[in-house]
Design goal:
The complex is a heterodimer of chains A (about 350) and B (about 325). Chain A is of the alpha/beta class and about 350 residues long. Among the domains of chain A are: about 70 residues, no CATH class; about 90 residues, no CATH class. Chain A is about 35% helix and about 25% strand. Chain A has an eight-stranded mixed beta sheet with strand order 6-7-8-3-9-10-12-11, sandwiched between helices. A four-stranded antiparallel beta sheet of chain A has the order 2-1-4-5, covered by helices on one side. In chain A, helix 7 links the parallel strand 7 and strand 8. In chain A, helix 3 packs across helix 4 and helix 4 crosses helix 6. With about 325 residues, chain B is mainly alpha-helical. Chain B folds into two domains: about 100 residues, no CATH class; about 220 residues, MetI-like fold (Orthogonal Bundle). In chain B, helix 5 packs across helix 8, helix 5 packs antiparallel against helix 10 and helix 9 packs antiparallel against helix 10. In chain B, the strands form two sheets. Chain B has a two-stranded antiparallel sheet. The chains are: A alpha/beta (about 350), B mainly alpha (about 325). At the A-B interface, helix 2, helix 3 and helix 6 of A face helix 9 and helix 10 of B.
């Protein structure tokens, strides 16, 4: 399986009047052909910032990027962090494409759907207007929009939310990119429509042999489609592994907290939702130790107050399943399995 | 569309009727005797009484109003015998100060005001919108700061200061534009003289409005650049220039058109200060002079005309909006 995207020690910081906001701090992950890698985390954990970094969509000057983002373009690898604006622009929509969270506001309200699709093709194939329009109709058909020729002449407000997300997907695939970044693609949609969109994405992934970087906070979505999962907290990856490992053998306390807080339809109707206590830390003043320590119920299992003083590294007994925690891995394994049994 | 227009035209007519009735009533209840005002220096009670009957001021107010309305459609004649005269339709009454039909006065003044307003509109749109785009594009850099100085000066300097300053320096001290003594020349008769006549009044009006439009455009462009669909365009690999001039400006265009339509309508009602400074024989000056001279029929007519222009421009703007914004269907 060829590697399409390799993010290595990515750091993204935004200088503000209040100080430097470290939105992403040392993220590393790889994405291969036909593979779906999910980035999971709550709002503000740095998932979207990571996705936008791969697209090179951060404003020059507003964001400080270090590390590397190697994107495969044909036979070469381009580092998005060091490439110039024009190089990145020519990759966008062609080698890597992105679909966004809110399909209601992500389409230009004043242009016809067909033209908005064709534009993405024309940018990378100048002058080929006829092919662009033909391709637009093919893509609309492919994403399951009936009567594409007629619908292409309509405006976004004439489409429902689910249909607009289909249009966004069609638009992203106009140039058959190898990498697709899907930033909360189903969050703004009804549950029934969510399933349709996920099925559509999966079938398109097979057809185009794409790598999909799925950014979401919805663990249900991750369980359905992801091969590998990276759990983010306060700009750092706290757990990384295969979807099965992360779901059934979580190693980071934060992941366990997330899994426990998923609402369930249980026989004990009076059970309260098991939310993680506390709030995520400010990204300007991160705690010196583990960012999750103030909210962590297992900090007492670690030696001394190491959780408050030292930042844990992303480690694991198996290289395929890493986590950030000072508590001994064996201790965690035995506690977490019990905890999970209680909720499942 | 047709349904929309006919409905709007119907309401426009109702609005105009109400406006004209209110204005008519106000002028009727003013503590002036129009018949006495209509009579010159050698005035006798006899002449006043004669004028009162001749001009219809002896009739009840509502009859006077109906006569005024019917004059608009059928023309109106005053007096009888050898002293009789008439104002053909559309007649807005008779100016006793000018001894002329009001319609004729409007017909002379309107082209001047239209020329002033259209010329100024073109200049302020070009200057204001381009400066606004530049300011937004280079936000917080020196072009933005320079434009904000222009905005500050343009919005805070009243037209009588900029107008007089232009007149004093450009015309009198530097003699770049000759002082026009011949008066208004229509564009098609002598374009050169036309431009010479209007260039300073245009600039005077345009400075004030261009400043407002710079500020408005800058804010609108910045707001639109933050929209999700602009991010989508960038994600497609669209060039930054295209993002700005196509995707962003397409969305900024509609509100600017609305604003311009309404500001333009306001100017037709009277750019009184500018017209007075540059001695332009337009509607604003006509209104001002008629007010000072208690020439009530003229004031009534210009007020109704101004209201009509505002109503019509509102209709035009709404129709343009439907053309510009596919979400608006009428």
């Amino acid at each position: 399986m060829a590697e399409l995207l390799k993010i290595d020690n990515l750091q993204v910081a935004f200088p503000t009047d209040d100080g430097l906001v470290r939105a992403v701090d040392g993220v590393s992950l790889t994405l291969g052909e036909g593979e779906t890698v999910a980035i999971v985390g709550e709002s503000g954990s740095g998932k979207t910032v990571t996705g936008l970094s791969v697209m090179g969509l951060h404003k020059k000057g507003a964001a400080q990027l270090t590390g590397s983002i190697l994107l495969k373009d044909g036979d070469r690898n381009v580092d998005i962090v060091t490439a110039n604006d024009e190089e990145i622009r020519l990759l966008r929509g062609r080698a890597v494409a992105m679909i966004f969270q809110d399909p209601m506001s992500s389409l230009h309200p004043y242009y016809r759907i067909g033209n908005q699709l064709a534009e993405g093709y024309l940018v990378h194939n100048p002058g080929k207007k006829k092919e662009a329009l033909k391709r637009a109709l093919e893509m609309l058909d492919l994403v399951g929009i009936a009567e594409p020729a007629q619908r292409a002449d309509e405006y976004p407000h004439q489409f429902s939310g689910g249909m607009r997300q289909r249009v966004m997907i069609a638009m992203a695939l106009m140039n058959s990119p190898r990498v697709l970044i899907a930033d909360e693609p189903t969050t703004a949609l009804d549950v029934t429509v969510q399933a349709q969109i996920l099925i559509l994405l999966a079938s398109l992934q097979k057809e185009f042999n794409m790598g999909i970087l799925l950014i979401t906070h919805d663990l249900g979505v991750v369980a359905q489609v992801a091969d590998k999962v990276s759990v983010m907290y306060a700009g750092r990856i706290v757990e990384q592994g295969s979807a099965d490992d992360v779901f059934y053998k979580p190693k980071a306390p934060y992941t366990l907290g997330l899994l426990k807080s998923v609402p369930r339809i249980s026989t004990h109707g009076s059970d309260r939702l098991k939310a993680i206590p506390g709030q995520p830390p400010s990204l300007i003043n991160l705690p010196t130790g583990c960012a999750f320590a103030p909210r962590c119920e297992f900090a007492s299992h670690a030696a001394g107050d190491i959780c408050a003083t030292d930042r844990p590294e992303l480690l694991g007994s198996l290289p395929s399943h890493l986590s950030r925690c000072h508590v001994a891995e064996a201790t965690r394994d035995s506690i977490f399995i019990k905890e999970l049994k209680e909720v499942r | 569309m047709l349904n929309f227009i006919s409905r709007r035209v119907f309401f426009a007519i109702i609005t105009l009727l109400v406006v004209s009735a209110v204005v008519f009533a106000i002028f009727s209840f003013l503590p002036f005797d129009p018949a006495a005002l209509s009579c010159g220096q050698k005035c006798t009670d006899q002449v006043i009484a004669g004028n009162r009957i001749k001009l219809g001021f002896d009739k009840p107010v509502y009859i006077q109003y109906l006569l005024f309305l019917s004059g608009i459609f059928f023309g109106r004649s005053y007096g009888s015998g050898s002293a009789a005269f008439s104002c053909p339709a559309p007649s807005f009454g008779y100016s006793y100060n000018e001894n002329a039909c009001v319609t004729g006065l409007l017909r002379e003044a309107l082209p001047v005001t239209l020329s002033l307003a259209i010329g100024a509109l073109i200049i302020w749109l070009i200057v204001g919108v381009s400066l606004g785009i530049v300011a937004a594009r280079f936000k917080n850099k020196w072009p933005d700061r320079v434009s904000s100085i222009f905005v500050l000066l343009g919005t805070s300097l009243p037209t009588f200061v900029t107008g007089l300053a232009l007149l004093i320096w450009v015309t009198i001290k530097w003699k770049l534009v000759p002082l026009s003594l011949t008066g208004y020349t229509p564009l098609w008769e002598n374009p050169y003289k036309f431009f010479q006549f209007f260039i300073l009044p245009w600039i005077t009006l345009a400075i004030a409005f261009a400043a407002l439009y710079t500020r408005f455009t800058r804010a609108a462009v910045l707001e639109t650049l933050g929209e999700d669909y602009i991010r989508t365009a960038r994600a497609k690999g669209v060039k930054e220039r295209t993002v700005l001039f196509k995707h962003t400006m397409r969305a900024v265009f509609a509100p600017i058109i609305t604003l311009a339509g309404l500001d333009f309508a306001g100017l037709i009602g009277g750019a009184i200060i500018t017209e007075t400074i540059f001695n332009l024989p337009g509607l604003g000056r006509l209104t001002l002079r008629s007010t000072f001279e208690f020439d009530l029929p003229v004031v009534l007519a210009t007020t109704i005309l101004a209201a009509a222009v505002v109503i019509i421009m509102n209709l035009v703007v709404d129709m343009l909006y439907a053309v510009l914004d596919p979400r608006v269907r009428i």
